[in-house]
Here is the input.
Amino acid sequence: MRTQVAIVGAGPSGLLLGALLHRAGIDAVVIEQRGADYVLGRIRAGILEQTTVDLLERAGVGRRVHAEGLRHDGTELAFGGALHRIDFQALTGRHVTVYGQTEVTRDLMAARAEAGLVTVYDAADVAIADWDGGAPKVTYMLDGRRHQLDCDFIAGCDGFHGVCRASLPAGAITAYEKVYPFGWLGVLADVPPATEELVYANHERGFALCSQRSRTRSRYYIQCPSDDRVERWSDDAFWDELRRRLPEHVADHVVTGPALEKSIAPLRSFVAEPMRFGRLFLAGDAAHIVPPTGAKGLNLAASDVGFLADALGEFYGERSDAGIAHYSQRCLARIWKAERFSWWFTSLMHRFPETGEFGARMQRAELDYLVGSQAASTALAENYVGLSLD
Ligand code: FAS
Ligand code: PHB
Here is the structure.
């Protein structure tokens, strides 16, 4: 089989890239190691920046996010037993959209199937070769036979544990990493959200987040030890701990119910530089990871593949290598700013016992300053709604 662009990974990065390339008349095949149900079953991000919604529109899948996405003009910070609102709309003139990554993936999968585009699921033992030579290729096992996909370019959209970055020779990348001493225990439940907008809580027992997927489906998180295990948490234990970490008048509005999904996500900051190697490009979690506090993971993946689609469009449309040559630098300029914001917001909102009482007072002083200063609140707001693509 032959295509112009071989995309490894059918998560949001791979599927959005495939949709953008299709709209530009560029042929691409997506190769995914798992089944479609597995990809849809992973409960992850929930907040879309406007730049991401714009890319979904450009990809031809904007209808449902406009119909079902929830516009949020602000968010609440909870500390000292009270709520403090950060008004995105007043401070920046912009907002975010609450629309789960699962729904983004569902929309992209449906559009791909409707267009009759090739997605190979359950591809085993995927390997990439000759990305820096003249004949890039991806091979994989399917139905007991090895298949080969010849292509012009390979897009490594295969996530943090994927094969593409792992295939690079030693020394090809410079990795920057910080692992946090805690994780997030998340619960998805078909219960109405406790609050209109998201609540990020800094509490002496640990961080908590009240998020949502719709007016009838909520997503909650609590900070937990990095070696914690989900089996140790009954639904009731989760709900009790969540409510302990929220201001009383918020906790009183938490509607509990059976967990549809319960999982622990480790938190890390990670960047691999560069993101282009000859005819191989890394995009999304294959190239970078952020702690989910700033809701940047999915949004960074989207901007990466938007830049890559631009670059490949220039190559095929104008026979220009300029976009390709600039891809890595263009992505990294935005990635590092989002890494900084995600690290800063995580450092501000979580408990770090090792920093002791002084560290806790520094956090409280910064929170008091933040909510009392228009300049500081604007800085948070403009990073949260998403920095420009330039
Ligand atoms: P993904 O990891 O989503 O997709 C990669 C795809 O490649 C997968 O389908 C995988 O099966 C496939 N693949 C891997 N190896 C392969 C191989 N060798 N061959 C073929 N296919 C292969 N972001 C937020 O903004 N908010 C959150 O709350 C949030 N929570 C998260 C929780 C967890 C547990 C994780 C891991 C991430 C979370 N994220 C969150 C970040 C997340 O949303 C990512 O940013 C987003 O999934 C990135 O999408 P992709 O780059 O497509 O990577
Ligand atoms: C989510 O709804 O999954 C979510 C929302 C905001 C975040 C992180 C996760 O900062």
Summary: The chain has a mean pLDDT of 97. The pocket of P-hydroxybenzoic acid (ligand 2) is lined by residues 45-47, 198, 211, 219, 292-293, 295 (CB under 6 Å). The chain has two domains: 5-72+98-176+268-345, 180-266+351-385. The chain has twelve helices and 20 strands.
